Amino acid sequence: MEALGLLLYGFKVLMTWKILALMMAGLVLGIFVGVLPGLGGPNGVAILLPLTFTMDPTSAIVMLSCIYWGALFGGAITSILFNIPGEAWSVATTFDGYPMAQQGKAAEALTAAFTSSFIGSLVAVMLITFLAPGIASFALRFGPPEFFAVYFLTFCSFVGLGREEKHKTIISMTLGLLLAGVGMDTVSGQLRMTFGLNDLLRGINFLVAVIGLFGISEILLTMEERLALRGHAANISPRVVLKVWKEMPRYWMTLLRSSAIGCWLGITPGGAIAASFMGYNLAKRFSKEPESFGKGRIEGVFAPETAAHASGTSALLPMLALGIPGSGTAAILLGGLMVWGLNPGPLLFVEHKEFVWGLIASMYLGNVVGLVLVLTTVPLFAAVLRVPFSAIAPMIIVSCAIGAFAIQNAMFDIWLMLVFGVVGYVFKKIGIPLAPFTLALVLGNRAEDSFRLSMIGAGGDLRVFWSNGLVGSITTLAVILLFWPVISALMARLKRR
Amino acid sequence: MSKSDVGGAGGETPPGEMSPAVVSVRTVDVVVSLLLVALAALLAFDNWRTGMGWDSTGPQAGYFPFYLSVILAAACVYGLAKEFLAREHTKEVFVTREQLGRVLQVFFPTLAFCLVTQWLGLYVASFLLVAGFMIFIGRIAAWKSLLTALIFVLVMFVVFDVAFDVIMPKGPLEALFGR
Question: Quick check: A184 contacting B, CB < 8 Å?
Fold first, then answer.
């Protein structure tokens, strides 16, 4: 039980007033971010990242990850009270959460959502605590070919497992990889794709892209749809909380199933959105009375919320252990690591113990504090939504601009943010997914470096990616996933005969 | 995922759905694909110039991006071919006139905000954006709007410039603050 000892060490790292205060600040900011339409988890974390530039890495990651937990909690508030998912992953929560609110059971629905979120996260954090160190120490043996194979697997699984049209996923991913290559080439020092523009020498910062793609474009979309906010009031009393908690053990199977789905989809890049829908649909399928779903059944709140949080949390596992983010927000946290001067990857567990275990301990503490915080302050955050959107929209735009500028102190980045805002708006409407783009932009340089280093090591022989059992099986798996749409179509045809 | 994907119980269609369409999803899809093919060609050319082959140290700087441009172009061409060969076309609307109007209502102020930030600094631009947006688009009383904008700008200044040392461009105001 070495992990437990290290976890205790992590808690010791956390126990300073400064870090605890930052944690609270992060949670409150995060809930705001989750509640406000037009500000999502990835975008909120990206905008607030510059606040952490002057902090030490441990305080910074604790604050940022708490913003992320806060955003996960906050999304449920708007789904249930206003029938507006603050986040895409809380869409499934509206199916039963809003009907419950209509029946005057808003407090029950909220308590159910928060508690099941908490359980989902807790399962995922335990998974991280006990699995991540093992995976990291295994990955210490990785050389460039193995790393390239893992990156390749990540990219291919987007193509193979994504729900979008395959060619659109490929467009999004190659575009991200290309933009990652703009600027100075890290291996040879040559300039690429800069077309003589000085501002492009630095490359295209992916945080700027994220702020534009998710922040500005979301404002454009929200305006387009003209949100009319009509919500229900809610005040959670301790009596209601106890009542829901008493009811909860009856649904242990749903909770367990959703946690498992969430953890799996979080580690593979399926993401919280897919997890929440899958959790909901499976709960419905296995239920004895499936027709009662969608009419205000508390199980319909438990299922998607548990899955979304388990997925959102476990997305940090591959980021910590391998340096490969499992979600958009994890990708931004990874970007943060690089800004603070840490090298993401398995070496983190060896070289920066206080950082890794501080973060893991903060996941436990952040979720407990977050749960108490949301249960006690719901009316306050629900009031935020009564502020007119015409006041909130310009403030979000300003926050986006501040975030974009602060990353490299460049005015050019504010313009770039605007361009990405329009691109994000158009892409979302024609069905080009944005997550593969973000991931490609973050991982592009690292993937290319590991490819070229493997090539240099092997003298240009592509067989290096099948040179031993480990790298060979990862590469083969990646290729299968890449062609999975074709393979599954062929298999279906064979079956029909 | 956009909010337009939001289905499920109690989903309401906003009023104004009957407003005439400006452009269809299909047209935008085709235009974007063509633009991306052009971009891919440009990047492929630039990387070919940088060197897309192999030398003694392995692949050259342009190797990776060159082939990525080729894949990008191929994926776009595939999408275009699929679009033109399809027997039935969806009549999905990309944006209606009313929706476009609302989108431009927020796009133009944002554009203006970026321009003003370049000349007068971020805080002046923020004040103008928040106050202007609330007065002209939100139709909120002028004094409320101006006060909100002022408080917001001050809070931002204190949080970023003072508390966290994240220095924003301030244009000619710089001298006033003595920084």
Answer: no
**Is the same domain home to B73 and B142?**
no
pLDDT tier for residue B109 given thresholds of 50, 70 and 90: very high
Q: Which domain holds residue B119?
A: 97-177
Question: Which of A224, A414, A455 minimises the CB distance to B99?
Answer: A224
Q: Does the beta-carbon distance from A406 to B166 stay under 8 Å?
A: yes
Q: Would residue B3 count as lying in a domain? A: no
A74 close to A357: Cβ distance less than 8 angstroms: no
Measure CA A223 to chain center. Answer: 25
Contact A456 B148 (CB under 8 A): no
Residue ranges of A 317-336 with Cβ closer than 8 A to chain B:
none
The reply to whether B125 falls in a domain is: yes
Q: How many CA atoms lie within 13 A of A112 on its CB side?
A: 33
A227 to chain B nearest CA, in Å?
8
- State the smallest CA–CA distance between residue A392 and chain B in angstroms: 9
User: Can you spell out the DSSP letters for A406-437?
Assistant: HHHT-HHHHHHHHHHHHHHHHHHHHT--SHHH
Is A414 an interface residue toward B (CB < 8 Å)? yes
Query: To probe the interface with B, which of A178, A230, A437, A441 has the most B CB atoms within 10 Å?
Result: A178
Q: What is the pLDDT of residues A358-378, one digit of tens each?
A: 888 888 888 888 888 888 888
- The reply to whether B11 falls in a domain is no
Among A33, A108, A133, CA closest to A399 = A33
Q: Of the given ranges (A191-195, B17-21, B86-90), which has the lowest mean pLDDT?
A: B17-21
**At residue B96, what are phi and psi to the nearest 5 degrees?**
-90, 165
Comparing CB atoms, the residue among B58, B129, B139 nearest residue A397 is B129
Chain-chain contact of B61 with A221 (C-beta, under 8 angstroms): no
Quickly tell me which residue has 């979304």 as its tokens. Answer: A308
Residue type, A225: E
What would the two tokens of residue B169 be? 């461009």
Which among B59, B62, B126 has the least Cβ separation from residue A192?
B62
Give me the half-sphere count of Cα atoms (radius 13 Å) on the Cβ side of residue A380. 9
Residues in chain B within 8 Å Cβ distance of A388? 134, 138, 140
Single-letter amino acid, residue A454: S
Residue given tokens 């064979």 in the structure block:
A494
Count of domains forming chain B: 2
Average predicted confidence (pLDDT) for chain A: 83
Whole-angstrom Cα distance, residue A386 to residue A398?
Answer: 20
Residue of chain A minimizing CA distance to B157? A402
Cβ neighbour number for residue A264 with a 10 Å cutoff: 16
B69 in the same domain as B103: no
- Other CB atoms within 10 Å distance of the CB of residue A288: 5
Please check the confidence at residue B38 and state whether its pLDDT lies above 90: yes
Residues A78-88: tens digit of each pLDDT: 778 877 776 66
- Flag whether B86 is in a domain: yes
The CB density around residue B1, as the number of other CB atoms within 10 Å, is 17
B106/B173 same-domain check: yes
Most A CBs within 10 Å, among B52, B57, B78, B103, to test the A interface? B103
Closest listed residue to residue A357, CA positions, set A5, A49, A76, A38: A5
Q: How far is B58 from chain A (nearest CA, A)?
A: 5
